[in-house]
């Protein structure tokens, strides 16, 4: 790792705590990485190294969150596999961009996108909250293009990608949020494996801080999976709005 690492011991104690909160938020909706990344930067990590290190923590979180969620609410595995087809090429493209560009390169654009989603959700909350029979609302080609773009964002930055997946599944497929959340967790669990490998090969991972955050993520995922299934669509919707506003503003003004 390059840079000047901070040596104050209290900052290292923050990592599992930040990871715990991020694990809860990521499992219920997404965007918890925006809490973790500033902590990693405080350790003196360049943004690209913090970006890679955070994925180690998400890998540990994913180990538990998928299993815990599936036990409470079966995950649609067929949907996970179908959406991987267009998203994996996008993921690969995002990896390449992440190694040559600063994540700040398109933060402003994505920040505006997140805030626009919030306005849309508040104007038409029934589109995400109403109980409905699942129906395809958009052609497969549109779905593929959207998930290619989401995959690219996941490869590039990762933070907040779960929010995009939730909104896309609800808008494109008519999924209830609790159902969509399980699919989101399954997709991210598969994305994260090549993500960790890519950033590790490119020497953009710090393992000890990543594992420290990951321990917190792991236990946060346990609580988040329980809450998301028990509390249902309303809790996930509330988390979506709050975290997307915070994410959009942090991207615009960081």
Strand content: under 5%
Number of domains: 1
The strand count comes to 0
Describe the largest sheet. Answer: none
Shape estimate: globular
Indicate the mean pLDDT. 82
| Secondary-structure element pattern, one letter each | HHHHHHHHHHH
- DSSP helix fraction: over 70%
* Helix and strand composition category: mainly alpha
Terminal residue distance = 22 Å
Radius of gyration: 17 Å
What is the number of helices?
Answer: 11
| Low-pLDDT residue intervals, each spanning 5 or more residues | 1-6
Spell out the blueprint of helices and strands.
Elements: H1 9-28, H2 33-42, H3 47-72, H4 77-100, H5 107-123, H6 126-129, H7 140-156, H8 161-173, H9 177-201, H10 207-231, H11 233-253
Helix pairs in contact: 1-2, 1-10, 2-3, 3-9, 3-10, 4-7, 4-9, 5-11, 7-8, 8-9, 10-11
Kindly describe this structure:
The model is unreliable at 1-6 (pLDDT under 50). With 254 residues, the chain is mostly helical. The protein has one domain (9-253). The protein contains 11 helices and no strands. It is globular. The protein has helices spanning 9-28, 33-42, 47-72, 77-100, 107-123, 126-129, 140-156, 161-173, 177-201, 207-231, 233-253.
Record keyword descriptors for this entry.
0% strand, single chain, 80% helix, 11 helices, 254 residues, mainly alpha
Brief rundown of the structure:
The protein has helices spanning 9-28, 33-42, 47-72, 77-100, 107-123, 126-129, 140-156, 161-173, 177-201, 207-231, 233-253. It is mainly alpha-helical and 254 residues long.
């Amino acid at each position: 790792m390059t840079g000047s690492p901070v040596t104050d011991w209290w900052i290292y104690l923050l990592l599992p705590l930040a990871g715990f909160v991020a694990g809860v938020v990521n499992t219920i909706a997404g965007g918890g990485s925006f809490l973790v990344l500033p902590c990693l930067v405080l350790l003196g990590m360049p943004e690209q190294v913090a970006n890679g290190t955070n994925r180690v923590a998400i890998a540990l979180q994913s180990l538990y969150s998928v299993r815990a969620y599936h036990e409470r609410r079966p995950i649609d595995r067929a949907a996970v596999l179908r959406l991987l087809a267009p998203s994996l090429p996008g993921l690969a493209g995002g990896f390449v961009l992440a190694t040559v560009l600063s994540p700040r390169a398109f933060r402003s654009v994505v920040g505006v996108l997140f805030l626009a989603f919030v306005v849309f959700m508040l104007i038409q909350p029934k589109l995400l909250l109403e109980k409905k029979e699942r129906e395809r609302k958009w052609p497969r080609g549109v779905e593929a293009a959207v998930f290619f773009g989401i995959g690219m964002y996941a490869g590039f930055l990762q933070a907040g990608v779960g929010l995009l997946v939730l909104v896309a599944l609800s808008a494109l497929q008519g999924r209830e949020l609790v159902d969509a959340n399980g699919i989101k967790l399954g997709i991210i669990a598969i994305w994260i494996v090549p993500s960790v490998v890519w950033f590790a090969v490119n020497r953009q991972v710090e393992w000890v801080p990543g594992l420290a955050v990951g321990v917190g993520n792991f236990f946060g995922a346990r609580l988040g999976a329980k809450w998301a299934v028990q509390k249902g669509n309303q809790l996930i919707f509330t988390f979506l709005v709050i975290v997307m506003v915070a994410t959009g503003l942090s991207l615009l003004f960081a």
